[in-house]
Design brief:
Strand order of the largest sheet: 1-2-3-4-5
Radius of gyration: 16 Å
Largest sheet: 5 strands, antiparallel
Order of helices and strands: HEHHHEHHEEE
Shape: elongated
Length: about 140
Amino acid sequence: MGKAAATALWTYDTRAYSQPQLLSALHAWMTSESNYADVASVNQQVPTTQLWEQMAQDRQYATATVNEAHFPASFTHALQADPGAITQAYIYAVTVTGKQSIAWNGAPHGGAEDRSTTLAVQCRPGKDCALVGVLPAVAP
């Protein structure tokens, strides 16, 4: 789930859909439990409407390649210290690394940058995993 969610967060296409459509698609990845969902942290990953319009003029788009996902050491240590704590919300921290490639009209090769983020993911027994939010800092 962490790899797929990061790919969704790092991929966009101003040629194919609007900024509100991208936000709607990302929100579909999120947990339906509103007391846990951090919609604002996901919204912050998307360019503002004004920036999206400027990017759309250049027909900008991005693709993502995810290389690795792991539980951060701090999460693993906290879980070892209190294994039962996870059973209330079933929320896990996952750090994901990869690369985002950006291209636009008039740029034959575009550009690419390494990316990493730590996501909060909810995986309740018997249910599909869902995105809870994007942490403000990357946890190693």
